[in-house]
Amino acid sequence: MGITGLLPLLADASQQINVFEELRGKCLASDAFVWLHLLATLYADEVVENQQYDRLAAAFVRRGRRFLAAGVDLVHVFDGKPVPAKAETAQGRRERRAKALAEAQGFEPGTDGHHKALAAAVSITPGMVAAVLTALRTDGQRYMVAPYEADSQLRLLDQLGIVDYVLSVDSDMIVLGVRRALLKFKHNTGAAVLFEQEAIFSQEEEREDGSLLAACQRAGPCPLPIVQARRINGGTSRCSSGSSLA
Fold this sequence. Notes:
Layout: H1 6-9, E1 14-18, H2 19-22, E2 27-31, H3 32-42, H4 44-49, H5 54-69, E3 73-78, H6 87-104, H7 112-120, H8 126-139, E4 142-145, H9 150-159, E5 165-167, H10 172-175, E6 180-183, E7 191-196, H11 197-207, H12 211-219, H13 224-232
Parallel strand pairs: 2-3, 2-5, 3-4, 5-6
Antiparallel strand pairs: 1-7, 6-7
């Protein structure tokens, strides 16, 4: 997900930070499905073929503990119900996963080809989510489940000032008006790229070529009103995109 070509436009307004070293005492909301997809791919042999989620859930909990050990107040935000407007996209993904699963049957179990095909067949199932939520509750880590996709919930938490930073892989967080979006996170080192709204729009005003608006417009009409409003109001507006928030 995200807007193609957006991040290179914002390179001069971004900064490299270390989450584990620089965010002590701050509250961070994380898109939990990013970790779920990553870990499900890593443990594809277990989760796809055997629906075993224990090691995945344990790994998810360990990731969260690292933030907490660094003094970062972490909140995991999970997707909720599927978005009806994306039904066609979801169907296409199901078909691709089914094809990958069929291809996996042609490889010897334990081989690289078998694991690669299973990784392509990974789907985030209710059972997987339930296992992770149970593990988080047992460990005392905070989480919430959004009504639909996590994006709107993440933005609302930021809009209400409940969190200081949002961690995601989706550049839509920038366009949706999140004040401090952390992208390109490296868990092994804590490195991430910080995009702050004020720096972004200061850069856009200096450039005056409309390139940020153009990049968003090419992606479709949904995020554009927010960017327009931020431009009109001098970078201070907290406008709604029309997304369902809760």
